[in-house]
Every structure is written in structure tokens, then in C-alpha cells.
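Lab meeting, item 3. Inverse folding demo.
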């Protein structure tokens, strides 16, 4: 008779208890998988930030503009390698519900600042040559069925054209992918010059500047120089590394990591108590059986392994079901939240962390009853029956 068969039979002898315990473990790992995926999606911008990339915004807040005149002045600062600028468009396609993260950027420098945007050379040349050209991320292109060569209208819920109306016409000249799986491919970029010349207000202003330094060690010096240069002007600046900027932006939403840690920690602590109590109760009920097994020649080490294996199997079954359900839920929500959380996915490292927790949970809840079974005295056990 194999050990796995014995473990399975002991585990399934109380089916109602087993079902309730598995459900509790399932819910805990479901919560862990979903919340951890959201946490990683919120923080993906921080993780993908380049050490030498910096963001310059208006000191009042990032929704206030900066004059385009700042571009050449900032480019001339020692330590600045390449600089581009962008303006938020507030776009949607066909229906206001179809939100698009669309940005008007300097096409000539955009790809130098963001080498993570992977675009075929022929599409890159076509985009540069066409002032009405647009490049779309693969995810959003698939969502709306766009193909290279399509001419599409895109509306803005912020800007209008000089000629009236809020719709701009664009040619899809390229569909980009990311250099990593986590890079955002739900965004759209088009020529700032085309946008700036045709909008009815805000001409010659940009939303923010993005630059790369020649050496990350120069970041603080470059930031201080830029902010000092524009101090006491009508448009003072705040310059930070991309990582610091993204951290500050996420902090405005809330401390997601703390929320996840608190909720998941409470869930697992509760599960630890439930499963631990279940295992102790199960072994206490089987005291006589364990004594008989020892009498029949089962080594104490094998009994220890059987009890601990039971706890591990219980944790793994419930945990794998929970993390599997989390994967399905996150996958189902990805399309709906693509515009807000384009990198939402249950990543392999979340799954591996969950697996490690399953093993740890199984060990912690099984070690005490396993040791009790290992040390059980046959005579003492029989006298209790």
C-alpha cells in the first residue's frame, strides 16, 4: 500500500470537514492571487523605470502645462543625453466608453527616450514621414481591430480643433510591441506638431518633458539644474527620476502594497489557525489507529511523513485551485481594465510565491501533529481507547 494512497484515504475520511477546509484555503489563495496581480500592475511602472530616465512636470501639479520653450533650454544642460515631450490627449475611439491612453509626443525623439517601444524599421520610417501618422500598441490594436494602413478617427474629451469638433483623423503607420511582456502596449502615440497646430487652445505648451541622462549618477545634478533654471518663473518645474515620479503617482492612489499585505496576511493567519486546528483534531481522532500502525511495524519516521504529507497535500490542493481561479479572474479582467491597468496579469513570480506559501502553510500546520504522531507511545495510546 503506497504512502500517497494512505494519505489520500485519511484526507477524505471526513468529506464535509475536508470540503470546508479546502474552501477556506481556496479563498485565501484566490485573494492572494488577485490582489498580488493588481499590486504588481500598479507598480509595474516603477519596476520598468529606467535608471537614467527623468520626468519634468509643472511644480504645481502634473496636470498643469510647461512651455515648449523649455525644451531647448533643458536639452542644453550638461548631462542631458536626449529629451522628448508629450501632451495628454484624453482620447476615445467611436464611443466615450472606449477610453484610449493617447499622447501627442515629439516623434523624432520619442523612440530614443523609450527604446522599450519595439517597432519594425519600415513602420518607424512611415510614422516619421507622416504628420498624421500614429503608432498603436499591439494590445489596443487587437482590441479595436486596427491594422497598419487604416485611417481612424479619434476624439478627445479635452481638446477641440480650430475648425471645430473634437475628432482628429490618423493613419495607423505602426503597431508596436514591448521589449518586455510587462511593457504597456495599450497606448497610442502621434505627432505633437500635428496636434499642436490644429488644437484650439494650449498651443506651444506640453504636458511634461522626459529625458535620459548620460549617466544615472548625474540625475540629481541635472534635476537641480533644471529646477533652478526655471525657479521663480510662471511655470516652475519639478524634476524627478522616472522611478520616483511613478512612486509618487501611485502614492496618490494609496499604499496598495500595504493594503495587499494586510488583507492577505489576515487571510493566511486565519487559514493557519483553521488548518492547524483541523490537523490536530484529525490526528487526535486517529490516535488508536496510529498506535495499531506502530504495532504492525510502521516506523515512526514513516508515520511522521504520512501526517505531514496529509497537511501538505491539503494545502496544495486548495492553494492550486485558488491560484488557478485567480488566474482566470485576472485574465478575464485584463481586457476590461486595459486602459487603466495595461500590465494586469498573474505573473509566474506571483504563482511561484503562492506555491512557496502553500508548502510553508502545509509544513507549519502539519509539523505539530506529525511530531505528536511520531512520539506517540503505543501503550499510552491504547489505554485511551
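The presenter then showed the designed sequence:
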Amino acid at each position: 500500500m503506497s504512502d500517497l494512497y494512505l494519505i489520500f484515504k485519511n484526507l477524505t475520511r471526513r468529506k464535509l470537514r475536508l470540503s470546508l477546509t479546502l474552501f477556506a484555503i481556496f479563498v485565501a489563495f484566490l485573494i492572494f492571487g488577485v490582489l498580488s496581480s493588481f499590486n504588481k500592475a500598479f507598480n509595474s511602472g516603477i519596476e520598468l523605470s529606467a535608471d537614467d530616465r527623468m520626468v519634468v512636470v509643472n511644480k504645481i501639479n502634473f496636470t498643469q502645462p510647461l512651455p515648449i520653450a523649455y525644451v531647448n533650454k533643458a536639452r542644453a544642460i550638461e548631462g542631458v543625453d536626449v529629451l522628448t515631450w508629450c501632451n495628454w490627449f484624453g482620447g476615445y475611439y467611436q464611443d466615450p466608453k472606449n477610453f484610449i491612453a493617447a499622447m501627442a509626443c515629439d516623434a523624432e525623439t520619442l523612440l530614443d527616450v523609450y527604446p522599450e517601444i519595439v517597432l519594425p524599421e519600415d513602420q518607424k520610417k512611415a510614422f516619421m514621414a507622416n504628420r498624421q501618422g500614429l503608432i498603436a500598441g499591439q494590445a489596443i490594436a487587437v482590441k479595436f481591430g486596427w491594422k497598419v494602413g487604416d485611417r481612424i478617427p479619434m476624439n478627445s474629451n479635452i481638446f477641440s480643433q480650430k475648425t471645430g469638433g473634437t475628432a482628429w483623423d490618423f493613419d495607423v503607420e505602426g503597431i508596436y510591441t514591448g521589449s518586455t511582456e510587462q511593457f504597456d502596449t495599450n497606448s497610442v502615440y502621434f505627432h505633437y506638431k500635428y496636434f499642436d497646430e490644429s488644437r484650439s487652445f494650449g498651443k506651444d505648451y506640453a504636458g511634461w518633458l522626459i529625458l535620459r541622462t548620460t549617466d544615472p549618477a548625474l540625475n540629481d545634478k541635472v534635476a537641480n539644474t533644471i529646477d533652478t533654471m526655471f525657479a521663480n518663473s510662471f511655470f516652475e518645474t519639478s524634476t524627478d527620476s522616472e522611478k520616483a515620479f511613478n512612486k509618487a503617482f501611485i502614492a496618490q492612489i494609496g499604499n496598495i502594497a500595504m493594503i495587499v499585505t494586510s488583507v492577505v496576511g489576515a487571510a493566511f493567519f486565519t487559514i493557519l489557525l483553521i488548518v492547524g486546528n483541523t490537523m490536530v483534531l484529525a490526528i487526535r481522532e486517529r490516535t488508536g489507529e496510529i498506535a495499531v500502525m506502530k504495532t504492525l511495524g510502521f516506523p515512526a519516521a514513516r508515520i511522521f511523513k504520512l501526517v505531514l504529507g496529509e497537511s501538505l497535500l491539503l494545502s496544495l490542493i486548495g492553494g492550486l485551485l485558488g491560484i488557478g481561479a485567480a488566474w482566470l479572474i485576472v485574465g478575464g479582467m485584463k481586457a476590461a481594465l486595459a486602459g487603466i491597468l495595461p500590465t494586469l496579469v498573474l505573473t509566474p513570480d506571483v504563482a511561484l510565491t503562492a506555491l512557496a506559501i502553500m508548502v510553508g502553510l502545509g509544513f507549519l500546520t502539519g509539523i505539530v501533529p506529525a511530531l505528536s504522531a511520531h512520539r506517540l507511545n503505543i501503550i499510552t495510546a491504547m489505554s485511551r481507547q
